[in-house]
Specification:
heterotrimer, A mainly alpha (485), B mainly alpha (497), C mainly alpha (122), A: 485 residues, mainly alpha, two-stranded antiparallel sheet, 2 strands, C: 122 residues, Helix Hairpins
């Protein structure tokens, strides 16, 4: 398969999968088989691109020009490669998990669920491979729209209200801020292509660069920078597989990925540094990082707690980009992969507990580790990764982030990064402690471990967190070019 | 034969209308009425192709040379408009027989088709002609036919709506006529090219005629603004579109205001010239705020409607604001945005009204609350509605995005970033009114006692999806829309001099 | 100044007619009277065209053998107004037809009553 074909396949297979799901709606087993097949083929297509990209190639695919000078085009560079790998790889596990979860929960509208899920993945891959801001924006909006039916899956008043907030906030930021920034950039730079070194460098003076940077950063609502973060906790009304893959991985990573990509390929690190925009963005990210982490510590609902933790961890990535040096950018990019693996594990665990023990609040989890040792063990490993402790992958990303901040002698930022990790201990470890060391409630409850289809994926992702620690080298080699190493 | 295309474009529907009265036989009339818009579309397509290759075509009616004889002058701008008008007419045709309101209309179908074809002839005539008085006559033919079409609505309120549309429309038409008279008084000509040459002399400030020309321009602009439903002269539009039969609303919303827009642009840019209208008169200072107010007021009103067709009609008021904004930005990019939106909005609003017609057929109501459960029971219609709604919002990958792109770009080119932000911000209101419908259609359950509904037949779904599919297609491939619109904007901008 | 104001008396007549018509259209509730107002309004424009074409001392534009230089009024506006009159008649006819239908459907042609009936319908 040539790289062009691989790109096309990665985008088309999920869409075909969605069509297949709709066609097989009357036969659930066939439908689920179609989904799993689509996930495997998609991941295969994405993975086949890795060798070429690691070797320094930038395979691309240009379809046609939509507006003068604005083609619908794709080009795979290291950052997008990583994001695509994470999204398509975790889609396999999430699908298996979703089958277990949706069936044990007796959820309705499963066909719509799987179909929208597949289209959302196609949109996420489109974002990952976009060769210019226009293409990226197209898929960005598509992702918002296809995840809306997933958020409002239950269709009750609560879901609808959450859906309104979700759509309203994401659309408002993307249309008013992001689109304005994109068209403005086009008016200034005459192009929207992603180019190493940036397209605004030399064309925009410092004040304009700062305005544009802030428009981009806040306009990318999916990056959940405060004060535009509230859609993420709201989206937690969705079924857990959606929260796991989309609101811990695909959607939110699409946000921070967009910000990082804009910083690297639209502004360029030099412009970011010289204009002073990076400094402002860094403080915005730092504030979000600490505030969200602090809010997370007082949430009782487990999924909401994880959601605020996601907001905080996303800010790490934005901060990595905003520090405007290669090492920190590398750390931020690595964190995309590390956090994805860890957070999806945490959500899988939360979902497994909800399905098996019907418990959703942290305060209900006393002693649950004795009945569900594997689930809670996985939760523990993933927590380590979020905090940034060995032997979990999060160690590496935080290491490079702190190193990058220290390189630039940004001691305040070093302190923020470390404080964020301390807070992470504060909101994750109590869950583990309660599960394993608190006595279970007196009345014995008749449940054991989670269903196998739920247990298997979460075990694999938990092991993945450790794997990312041990075998971080390929990731490093893939991303090294963007850090100029 | 091919040199007679400009006149055939108008004469074919104009003769076919009365022919319907003579034929009377239901199948013959239906056949004729289906064939004529297709023939018009073919002719318009051929004309557009010719114009793209050889430039403007001038046709002298009866062989009388202009400026004495009546000239039909086809250039990129009006060829483009004629393609849109005849395409929409061809697409809505399948809706007309089965869907018409009362039994009385169904019994006298041939009358209905006669009026419809006359409306089409009028709209094409306005676009084709190069003579101002001729334009007035066609404007009134189209308007009179439209009043009658609106009056055919199911509810008796349609009659009142048609009546008030007639009153305000006639006032607009008469203003237009007065403007022509004043221009004639100063120049002694009615031919557009000739006017463009002769107007500058009395137009220049200080000459005795300058005030007359100013008054002439004012009457022309106000008259056309009424027909175009520029805010705040828009009150007739929501009533007329809400009570007309849905298919008629689809046709009128997609063509009638568009043709008025074309004529306004023609008068502003080709006859008087941007230098006079914007540099001397500063029309943009009036039109720009009005356009923005229209965008917000129209969309806000749409949010609070309980009737689907009314919602779409108020959204039209807002979308017309985008088009006039394109004019008031006074640049080729802005005008391109306006013209592109003319085309794109015709597609989306046509498609949306057709979807409303599908709903109306099954639900026998156009209240939004009655759409409950439609998402499941009429999946294709609802999907069409949602896609059309996304285009109204301006989601990338739909035609609405292309329009917005050019308008915002035009605003930013001139450093009017506030206008740019307002344009994008107003599309958020579109999110609100589109989503109100989406929530009801998908999340609300149909009452147990309500009559059962099912999807409409393919005969109606196909035309709806042709328009909706086109909004997606033209959101991704824009050579035919933005490309032509840009060239047409250039043609208009250079005036006829 | 006064000469130019009085000298243009035909315009004043047109303006008075026009405003009378517009006033009737907006101020009357009776739909038939509104149509009358509309007619007056349209007629004012017709008068404008016709008076504009008049040349002082001019006659009908007919060629008479032997007389080379006939002073005649401009015929074009007259011709145009023939068309405009046709348009006006058509408009009036349609408007009256609508009024008849409204009378059948509502039992009244008074605008305020129509509004009340529609409001009562909800």
């Amino acid at each position: 398969m040539s790289p062009e074909q691989a790109i096309a396949a990665a985008l088309l297979v999920p869409l075909l999968g969605a069509a297949g799901v709709l066609l097989c709606r009357r036969r659930p087993n066939v439908r689920e088989a179609v989904t799993v097949l689509a996930t495997l083929l998609t991941f295969g297509a994405v993975a086949s691109l890795v060798p070429a990209v690691t070797a320094g190639g930038r395979p691309g695919l240009e379809l046609f020009e939509v507006l003068p000078g604005l083609p619908l085009a794709f080009a795979v560079e290291p950052l997008g490669m990583l994001f695509a790998l994470v999204a398509s790889g975790l889609w396999i596990l999430t699908s298996i998990y979703a089958i277990g979860y949706m069936r044990s929960h007796h959820e309705g509208h499963q066909t719509r669920f799987y179909a929208c899920f597949a289209v959302a993945i196609a949109a996420a891959l489109g974002i990952a491979f976009a060769a210019n801001l226009f293409t990226l924006f197209l898929f960005y909006e598509l992702l918002t729209l296809t995840t809306y039916p997933l958020v409002t899956h239950h269709g009750d008043e609560r879901a609808r209200r959450a859906g309104r907030l979700y759509l309203g906030l994401l659309m408002a930021t993307s249309i008013v801020l992001l689109l304005t920034a994109i068209i403005w950039t086009y008016a200034v730079a005459g192009t929207l292509d992603f180019r190493p070194g940036g397209i605004l460098a030399g064309r925009a003076d410092a004040p304009l660069a700062i305005v544009l940077l802030l428009l981009f950063a806040f306009g990318t609502g999916k990056a959940a920078l405060m004060p535009f973060h509230r859609w993420l906790p709201a989206a937690m009304v969705a079924p857990t597989p959606v929260s796991a893959l989309l609101h811990a991985v695909a959607v939110v990573k699409a946000g921070v990925f967009t910000v990082t990509k804009i910083v690297l390929y639209v502004f360029g690190l030099d412009l970011l540094r010289t204009s002073g925009g990076g400094e402002i963005l860094a403080w915005v990210a730092a504030a979000t990082l600490l505030l969200a982490a602090a809010v997370a510590t007082v949430q009782d609902n487990l999924k909401r707690r994880l959601a605020y933790s996601t907001i905080s961890q996303l800010a790490y990535v934005v901060l990595g980009a905003a520090l405007a040096n290669g090492t920190a950018a590398l750390g931020g990019s690595l964190h995309v992969a590390m956090h994805a693996m860890a957070k999806i594990t945490l959500f899988f665990c939360a979902g497994a507990i909800a399905v098996t023990a019907h418990k959703t609040e942290v305060s209900q989890l006393d002693g649950i580790g004795r009945r569900m040792p594997i689930t809670c063990g996985a939760f523990f490993l993933a927590s380590l990764s979020i905090i940034g402790l060995p032997p979990a992958g999060g160690t590496w990303s935080k290491w490079f982030l702190v190193l990058g901040a220290a390189d630039g002698e940004r001691w305040a930022m070093v302190a923020v990064l470390l404080a964020g990790s301390l807070l992470a201990i504060g909101y994750l470890m109590p869950v583990v402690v309660r599960a394993f060391f608190y006595p279970p409630p007196a009345a014995g409850e008749g449940h054991g471990e989670a269903p196998l289809l739920c247990l298997l994926p979460l075990t694999l992702t938990a092991l993945g967190c450790v794997g990312q620690f041990v075998f971080a080298e390929p990731l490093y080699r893939l991303l090294a070019p963007i850090a100029g190493m | 034969m091919s040199e007679h295309l400009p006149i055939l474009q108008v004469v074919v529907p104009l003769l076919a209308g009365p022919l319907c009265l003579l034929l009377r036989h239901r199948l013959l009339v239906r056949g004729l009425a289906t064939a004529v818009p297709l023939a018009c579309l073919t002719i318009a397509g051929l004309l557009l192709h010719r114009v793209q290759q050889v430039g403007a075509i001038s046709y002298h009616i009866g062989g009388w040379a202009p400026p004495l004889g009546i000239e039909y002058r086809i250039d990129l701008a009006n060829a483009y408009v004629m393609v849109i008008v005849s395409a929409i007419a061809a697409v809505v045709m399948p809706f007309l027989p089965g869907h018409m309101g009362s039994a009385m209309v169904r019994r006298r179908e041939h009358l209905f088709y006669a009026i419809f074809l006359l409306a089409l002839a009028g709209l094409l005539g306005i676009s084709a002609t190069g003579d101002m008085f001729n334009a007035f006559v066609f404007l009134e033919i189209a308007s009179l036919a439209s009043y009658s079409l609106v009056a055919l609505g199911r509810h008796r309120r349609a009659l009142v709506a048609a009546y008030s549309y007639l009153i305000i429309g006639t006032i607009g038409g008469t203003f237009f006529l007065l403007g022509i008279g004043l221009m004639y008084q100063m120049t002694g000509t009615l031919n557009m090219v000739d006017l463009a040459h002769r107007l500058p002399e009395p137009m220049s400030p200080g000459t005795p005629g300058s005030r007359t020309v100013l008054v002439a321009f004012a009457f022309l602009a106000v008259g056309l603004s009424i027909k175009l439903a520029v805010f705040p002269l828009h009150q007739w539009l929501p009533r007329a579109y809400a009570h007309a039969p849905s298919a008629v609303s689809a046709f009128l919303a997609a063509t009638s205001t568009k043709v008025s827009y074309y004529l306004l642009v023609r008068v502003v840019f080709s006859l008087f010239g941007a230098a006079y209208v914007f540099d001397a008169l500063k029309l943009d200072r009036l039109l720009l705020p009005l356009s923005i107010v229209a965008m917000f007021a129209g969309s806000t009103a749409a949010i609070f409607q309980t009737d689907l067709k009314r919602l779409l009609a108020y959204s039209s008021v807002a979308q017309i604001g985008y088009m006039t904004l394109g004019v008031s930005l006074a640049s080729v990019t802005g005008l391109t945005g306006g013209l592109v939106h003319l085309f794109n909005h015709a597609l989306m609003k046509g498609g949306l009204f057709l979807a409303a017609a599908c709903y109306g057929m099954r639900l026998r109501s156009s209240r939004i609350a009655d759409l409950a459960g439609a998402g499941r029971l009429m999946p294709w219609t609802t999907a069409a509605f949602v896609t059309g709604g996304l285009a109204l919002i301006g989601v990338p990958g739909t035609a609405g995005f292309v329009s917005k792109w050019y308008l915002v770009l035009a605003a930013l080119e001139q450093g009017r970033w506030l206008v740019a932000v307002l344009v994008v911000a107003s599309s958020l209101l579109a999110v609100a009114y589109v989503w109100r419908v989406v929530e009801v259609a998908y999340f609300a359950d149909r009452d147990a006692g309500a009559h059962p509904i099912k999807e409409v037949p393919p005969l109606l779904l196909v035309p709806t999806w042709i328009l909706i599919g086109a909004t997606v297609y033209f959101g991704l491939r824009t050579e035919l829309t933005a490309g032509v619109a840009e060239a047409a904007a250039g043609v208009l901008w250079e005036s006829l001099r | 100044m006064s000469a130019s104001i009085l000298g243009l008396w035909n315009y004043w007549a047109v303006i008075v007619l026009m405003m009378t018509g517009l006033y009737i259209v907006t101020a009357r509730d009776n739909l038939v009277k509104k149509v009358m107002g509309l007619n007056i309004f349209q007629v004012s424009v017709i008068m404008f065209y016709v008076s504009m074409a008049k040349v002082r001392g001019g006659t009908a534009p007919i060629l008479v053998e032997g007389e080379e230089t006939v002073l005649y009024s401009n015929p074009l506006p007259h011709v145009l107004m023939l068309t405009a009159i046709v348009v006006g008649v058509a408009t009036t006819a349609l408007a009256l037809a609508l009024v008849v239908r409204i009378q059948e459907a509502y039992g009244t042609v008074e605008e305020d009553e129509l509004v009340r009936i529609d409001d009562d319908d909800g």
